[in-house]
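Q: My labmate handed me this sequence with no annotations at all. I'd like to see what the chain might look like in three dimensions before we decide whether it's worth expressing. Could you predict it?
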Amino acid sequence: AAPPALPFRLVGGAELFAGVTPATDLSAPERHDLSTMIYTSGTTGPSKGVLIPWGLWADSHDTTGCHLRPDDVTYDPFPMFHTGGKSMAQTTIQAGGSVVAAPGTTPAVI
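A: Here is what I predict for the chain of 110 residues:
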């Protein structure tokens, strides 16, 4: 019997990046270089912006993504403004895998 239909559409990298020309003259980021900025929820006071360096993502990959392979696909149900969403996606991408994002996630949202 055929497996049940998925409640989302799988999008491969070729489709996702169709027509995109990657930059070829960029140097790799240093550990201290800014990767992203997130905002706290403000549970103990006003919401605050938190600067996340590339080194944090690299360390996260080393500890949580060490078992991921280039042919792995992960489903990321978290919004990309949340550290959980960014971390899961970044770790999978660093391993060369593919990420299926939550419904409604678009390149503009990321």
